[in-house]
Amino acid sequence: MNCVSLKKQKGATKMKRGFTLIELMIVMAVIAILVGIALPQFRGMQEEGLIAQAKAELTTLKTAVESYYIHTGAYPTDSATWQTALTTASPTIVRVALIDPFTASAQYQIVYSAAPREYYAIYSVGTTGTASVSLVSAAGVVTESAPTCIFVSNGDEDTDS
After folding, report:
1. CB neighbour list of residue 37: distance below 8 Å, 6 or more residues apart
2. What are the residues facing 151 on neighbouring strands?
């Protein structure tokens, strides 16, 4: 019967433990796939958050415009700085002009129906950054330039909720 020694033979090298290059590449590929799946979903969630912010701020501005009308008997002008009338009104209606979250620094915009300016729409440029409200009719019907436009009105309401 042959005996096998369990002792380490002289001159034998120790095998080092670690990951092979193939194993590391597979792990990196799996991580890349997971990042590729997660990033578009994160972007979609970020966009949904901006839409929710715009809707909430537009509702606030609608209430502020109505309050301004009750106190002054007229709506703010439709200039680029129309929110200034709301921030300087007495009593205070809003403290600061609200910025459209889809632009770097532009305020929300307001448009009115033709005289006697009975109806208005306050809008955000939306996710594309180019949407607008081009017309508020004498009956309060709002015409949007794009389906991504987010607006509030004292006439027609945005149906893209």
Report:
1. none
2. 123
CA dist 76 and 62 (Å) reads: 11
* Secondary structure of residue 103 in the 3-state scheme: coil
Distance CA 107, CA 95 (A): 14
Instruction: Centre a 10 Å sphere on the Cβ of residue 141 and count the other Cβ atoms it contains.
Output: 14
Dist. CA 109–CA 118, nearest whole Å? 17
Question: Which one has a higher pLDDT value, 41 or 161?
Answer: 41
Angle of CA points 110, 148, 97, to nearest 5°: 35
Domains and CATH numbers, the chain: 24-153 (3.30.700.10)
Average pLDDT, integer, range 30-39:
90
**For the chain, how are helix, strand and coil distributed in percent, rounded to 5?**
35, 15, 50
Other CB atoms closer than 10 Å to residue 57's CB: what's the count?
20
Please give the single-letter amino acid code of residue 24: L
Q: Element (H or E) spanning 122, and its range? A: strand 120-124
Whole-structure pTM value: 0.72
Q: How confident is the model at residue 60 (pLDDT cuts 50, 70, 90)?
A: very high
